[in-house]
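In response to reviewer comment 3 from the previous cycle, which asked for concrete evidence that the modeling workflow produces usable outputs, we include below a single protein chain processed end to end. The sequence was submitted unchanged, and the resulting structure tokens are shown without manual editing.
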Amino acid sequence: MAQQAYMTETDNGGSGPEHRGTRLRRLFDRLVSGWRGDPRIWRRGLVVAGCAVLLAVIMLLHAQIPNAVGNLGSLIETFLPWLGLFVPVLLVLALVRRSATALIAVLAPTVVWFNLFGGQLSDKTVTGGDLTVVTHNVNAENPDPAGTARDVAASGADVLALEELSPAAVPTYEKALASTYRYHAVEGTVGVWSKYPLSGVRAVDLDMGWTRAMRATVTAPAGQVAVYVAHLPSVRVKMEAGFTARQRDRSADYLGEAIAHEPLRNVVLLGDLNGTMNDRALNAVTSQMRSTQGAVGSGFGFSWPASFPMARIDQIMVRGLEPQSSWTLPETGSDHLPVAARVRVATSGS
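The workflow returned the following structure tokens.
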């Protein structure tokens, strides 16, 4: 009998999965029992519920938020994915308030966020491709341009676009990249380096008074590709003026018009657009091109600031080309991360 009692006590007091499951059920039952019979669970937490509904509306109707006052709509769209961080905060508040109304309301922004960005949580990369492209804002104040050049060249890019090239640093980049890239061209503060011949090189007018965009034809083994390199004007967030982006928006329209008139079928845009794909102010460009990160990337691919990336303002977009993979590269001496993509060049018969 003593032996039987010992065995029974050991079986019931073990620490296996069944015992842990029992403890979790007890904890859940204790939590639920505190809510049962409480007539105020539907009346409490109305403020939290209201905030949840407002958050859902902002994310769902972000394109309707006007830009008339401080470009508020563009500002929200720049950091739109980060609004999801408010969801767990609201969930905790709903639990603390023991509000069934708030808990149900929190479902709204959760569903909207996953509808907008859930697809970016998976890896959509496919194998293949015959052209690797990289773009990098190297930062005019980069303390180690030669090191940055070596880093991006090590990516294996066939075509490399650099933005924010200072006149003093251009010879350094040219020397550091000469052994990897036989062909290159620089227009103003942007440049393109290629393993394949370049032709049709010209500056692209962004209505800025100086050159921050260019166009070139790369004759790759799989076919010709029109390469656009652009660095749109910077934006600022000011207390007295909001999100100041008027010059960037105007330059985006000029860039979009230039791409729309490009005669070649295969087009890739590489550059720092100082805006995300969600920003409606870049619609002149984004409406006619595909983001490689959105099509075949893994995650959000944030590129700025390099120390703690919060937004993808460095873009690779294509028209005619078929994206295969898209990713960010390790940090260099710049305040931006380089971004890369591998694409398949469409031939005339494909």
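The longest helix spans residues 100-117. We consider this sufficient to address the reviewer's concern, and the full set will be provided in the supplementary archive.
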